[in-house]
Amino acid sequence: MASGYSAKEEDGHHSGALGPAGGAAVRSRKPDNTAFKQQRLPAWQPILTAGTVLPAFFIIGLLFIPIGIGLYVTSNNIRELQIDYTGTESSSPCFACSQNYSWNMTTPCVCSVSFSLDQPFESNVFMYYGLSNFYQNHRRYVKSRDDSQLNGNLNSLKEPSKECEPYRTNDGKPIAPCGAIANSLFNDTLALYYNDPNGTETQIQLVKRGIAWWTDKHVKFRNPVGDDSNLTAIFQGTAKPVNWQKPVYELDSDPENNGFINEDLIVWMRTAALPTFRKLYRIIEKNSSTSPTLPRGNYTLKITYNYPVRSFEGRKRMILSTISWMGGKNPFLGIAYITVGSICFFLGVVLLIIHHKYGSRSSSADLTH
Amino acid sequence: MCTKRSGWVRLLYYRYLYPCTGEENWVDSRTVYIGHREPPPGTEAYIPQRFPDNRIVSSKYTFWNFVPKNLFEQFRRIANFYFLIIFLVQLIIDTPTSPITSGLPLFFVITVTAIKQGYEDWLRHKADNAVNQCPVHIIQHGKVVRKQSHKLRVGDIVLVKEDETFPCDLILLSTSRDDGTCFVTTASLDGESSHKTYYAVQDTKSFNTEQELDTLRATIECEQPQPDLYKFVGRINIYQERDEPIARPLGSENVLLRGATLKNTEYVYAVAIYTGMETKMALNYQSKSQKRSAVEKSMNAFLIVYLCILLSKALINTVLKYVWQANPNRDEPWYNEKTESERQRHLIRAFTDFLAFMVLFNYIIPVSMYVTVEMQKFLGSYFITWDEEMFDDEIGEGALVNTSDLNEELGQVEYIFTDKTGTLTENNMEFIECCVDGHVYVPHAICNGQILPGALGIDMIDSSPGPDGKEHEELFFRALCLCHTVQVKEEETVDGIKRGIHQGKGTSFYISSSPDEVALVEGMKRLGFTYLRLKDNHMEILNREDEIERFELLEVLNFDSVRRRMSVIVRSGTGELYLFCKGADSSIFPRVISGKVEQVRARVEHNAVEGLRTLCVAYKLLTFEEYQDICQLLETAKLALQERDKKLAEAYDAIERDFILLGATAVEDRLQDKAADTIESLHKAGMKVWVLTGDKMETAAATCYASKLFRRSTQILELTTKRTEEQNLHDVLFDLSRTVLRQHGSLTRDTFSGLSNEFQDYGLIIDGATLTAVMKPDQDGSTGNYKEIFLEICRNCSAVLCCRMAPLQKAQIVKLIKFSKEHPITLAIGDGANDVSMILEAHVGIGIMGKEGRQAARNSDYAIPKFKHLKKMLLVHGHYYYIRIAELVQYFFYKNVCFIFPQFLYQFFCGFSQQPLYDTAYLTLYNISFTSLPILLYSLIEQHINMDILKRDPSLYRDIAKNSLLRWRIFIYWTFLGVFDAVVFFFGAYFLFDNTTFTSNGQMFGNWTFGTLVFTVLVFTVTLKLALDTHYWTWINHFVIWGSLLFYVVFSLLWGGIIWPFLNYQRMYYVFMQMLSSGPAWLCIILLITVSLLPDVVKKVMCRALWPTTTERIQTKRKCLNVEQSTIFMLSQTSSSISF
């Protein structure tokens, strides 16, 4: 590069009559004797030798193994139950519903699945629905939304983003909420009944608040605010997403959970990372300190079967899970920690041997050298 | 008198020598009408020629063309062009990442470069304006007119006063001095600060007032401008009242170059011949051909590999995408329908998909690598200029970096070609002795050029010469006093070569471009003959009897390196004509017809073995007729417009013959400070040092012994003319190669038997003539054979001395080695103009700021004040630069593999839909801010070993020889490490996300959290990997490494903490905070970082323990010593505390 030359010029050496390469006639520039310029800054000079790394390996081993065991035990203590209600097998109770499905069905197809809990679920129980082979992370799908519309922007409400195509308008009216994600909102309704040994069937209270991120619900998603406080009026002139049965302002009777701030919608709008995923559906709160949230016994899951997955060979599951500080049941972290800890420990031992056998040899050889 | 001869004779000669043939070549010359005055009618048609004005334009751009031209220049670089293409693809087709991701970095790079170049150009504009507007004095119609410099035109007569700089290339017409000479320093052109004498043409020197000049009618015919500063061929035709114009030759001694400064002369009048961009100075600023370093070549090779990886990745994904999409329910499930336009299925769709994948993975080619490498080289080179140890107080200068492109090449040098005089030696000559007819004279009391009072005595070692000898002796001394081009300078403030001579009337100095001459003239002074001055073409000598002798100087046949001799023709006071010649023995002896040749030759050889520089002196008496012929011959040659040099050489050859030998001189050139130590270190560092010199074999060999290039134990192999005269070349070569190879065989046997005693090392001496024979292409095509054998011999010699080399031969040797089959990295170092060719030829050219001018330093890549500085330059700076840039290159590829490979893996889980894993901001900023500064800093200040150790233990240099840190093996290791880390990041996050929650409130995370988790692990791992590789932790390292991690965290918090109004998506909103609020995410990050770093740490520790390199041994040893020292210190402390 010519930059080498030009650098000299910038040093203020412009032997006027000379022009560009006048830098050659630089006289007597004794360099400063600063530590930085002489590359002699004081420095810590660590070297990775067997000796120095050894303790680190042992420490990692000693730290990781207990953490791993802790994680593993925690994970094992978590109760989890999964029920696949897709209904592709003819024996399955939802077989009929899954077979004769059409979007514009007037009467909802309901099926119920019975199951029993061998052990009670003690603390709060979280109810998830799970989908498999559903590509929420497909690029075309991920970008098919309008965040400013969901944030309550009135302009975007009337004029949704281009990204929403082909779910942007319907019959000339803008769709609210637009886009493929919103359009494919999971619309099965799950209800859980406890079958008392005495034969009565009691519905279990499912809480639908607190399933979405607090920031999403309160900041990122907002209903548009108009002259009228009535949501219906504000959404006037928009169309409901094609696959929805109800418009967005009728998602829930509770005004705090209606419109764009409906938590089911918010949960769905957070696209999953992988094609097999679960999403939080409801929370079963622990009522009393004495009885378990879900006692041992028989239960019935009643499903209003709306959501078709057969076309893309998907599966639908309902999951009941308790939660610890580390979340749901996942033995991965525990096992990984134990494995890595053990490997480090083992490597530590190997290095110790090497250090004793070779470390002394090489250093003595050096000293004679 | 030659000069008084009438012009028409010369013209006749001219016409005779150049019949019509000359005419066609006239296109190459220009005619300048002095003062724009037409010559008298009838002589030649006045053809007004158009020449550029005197405007200097060193700037590249104007205000208007800056943007397009600069952009064009920048996009000519392949990397920028690549990113431009990517950017355009992003703009045109629907791609996964927004155009910002590649547009912003590109814009950044382009803008920064443009600003830098714009600023530089602005400075150039300013400098140009200052130059172009500075006033000059022009003679118009007999009056002095002030004009701005850029309005000067060819043919204008210019008045230049003392200490002014010449505004363009001028032909000297007349000066304030009567003899028509002026003194000029060309310090700013070639760095030579000595005053050079320039001559006005004899016929114009009397025109030294404005009015007189107005009457001058003359034209100048000269060649078209060419960049060689020391060559000029021209002719001036002066029209007088008579019909026939007078033609005079013009040579470089008549040309005042732009940029040079007038000294010691009140004023000069001169006529402009080359102006503006056609001046020799401007022509010399054209950039030299670029050299590329070995590292850059490997870098480009790696880049091609990565380009292939990128293409194959994109191709694999495209194919898989179409395989996967074959099922329409996957291609377009009900929940994710395509738009109408997307449904149009063309072949072009597949191609756009391929391009989209390219765009998604394009970050694997690190855009910022080029920027970082350039910044590293540019900033890093300052450490060379800043180095105090490479600063020389004597000349007040430190090292200079002319190109920063080759910094790392300094760490890769395998062959060093060094000049002898001025490079290995001081070029600070001292007269030691002289020998006249076999009698030796030694001036005593030599005190480095200062003579002690009463030290005019002479020691005569041999018996006193007889009366005949006495006469010869005095003639010899006079010859040396007369046969030179030394000037006397009566001032103290002269840079360059200073020698004081006390003459009662003040201090004066001898100045010459050749230090030998100064030494000789001074030596003569000590022997009783003092050269006083040149006045009115008469040289004055103060002889032993304090009488002034005057000799009229008639002709000077200047020294050149081909003839290796110079002559003067003088007329003594008594009217005798002498031709004195001094030169190298080889060029004098064949031309001698009488004199005591044997005795002198014996003495010369004796002195040469001692390492002294010898010159022989001879003379002949000329009759007037002979002199006339000589004059004619010279005039003819000097008048020639074409091939003047060749004709001059022929003339000189004809004149300088039939000498009578007078004697010989011996001058000592001391070795430079620490030259031997430096050479020894370079040897230990595994470099082969070749000395290329024009000196004779014996002198050069003596220097080689003194500088420890040859040791006493070295077996010398000779490949010289002397030997090839006895045997033929073929046999000699085979003999030598057999000798060398036998040693080679025994060496391997020795290593088998475990006897690793010192094996015989060989030194080769070859001379120029033999080298030509070796290199000469043979008729039967067996030349390659000779060359190969020669190279084979050279490879096995630890040192090679090439003597009697012409400048071009030096370059030939360098070329020969450079293109031999191992392609070693060569370095050439020299100080003189004769070394320029090899400096330009070698991979790295180093110039020494020597006494023989600045050409070498100007043409070099690096310039250092002294030879000893080469040691630090190579062993410390070169070593550092190499390891720094090697790590930089490898690390850049590594961190981009880590970056992009997870994205590749993610495609398998998102239906090959080109969904990016990371957010746009992360994609954009990863290379420009999150991971850029630590590696830049590392590549600037890393020191794996202390510089003192590097200097003390040169063998460490062998550890990095042959580009060892950028071998394919290591490159593949880094790439696999990158792939491994990427797999760890991706699948670690995958299993953590696997169908479960990891928050304590049961809420789920989405794909952006997944990407952010991977990205966080990525940034930390990549930065910590560099931290593990850093061996030199200054506070800056701490600041930058921890600072950039902190910056990442702060940025992420900010980026996710606000609903950014200008963005049309808010996908990162609170993603980072939510992730950090989850315990398992933290645990996972820590785990993944540990796992990613583990293999590299284990590999490093294992390699260090089991197969340590020398470097690693030294590091460990130093560590042990440190520990020991600190323990001892602690012990002493405790003991002292106890004793108290």
The oligomeric status of these chains comes to heterodimer
Number of helices of chain B: 39
Structural class of chain B: alpha+beta
Q: How much is the average pLDDT of chain B?
A: 81
Give the fraction of residues assigned to helices of chain A: 25-40%
Q: List the secondary-structure elements of chain A in sequence, H or E.
A: HHEHEEHHHEEHEEHHHEEEH
Which structural class do the helices and strands of chain A define? alpha+beta
Helix content of chain B: 40-55%
Mean pLDDT of chain A: 84
Major sheet summary line of chain B? 11 strands, mixed
Low-confidence stretches of chain B: 1-27, 445-465, 492-506, 747-758, 1126-1140
* Overall radius of gyration of chain A: 33 Å
Number of strands of chain B: 38
Active site (chain B): 419 (4-aspartylphosphate intermediate)
Enzyme class (chain B): translocase
Membrane topology (chain B): Multi-pass membrane protein
InterPro entries (chain B): ATPase_P-typ_cyto_dom_N, ATPase_P-typ_P_site, ATPase_P-typ_TM_dom_sf, ATPase_P-typ_transduc_dom_A_sf, ATPase_P-type_domA, HAD-like_sf, HAD_sf, P-type_ATPase_IV
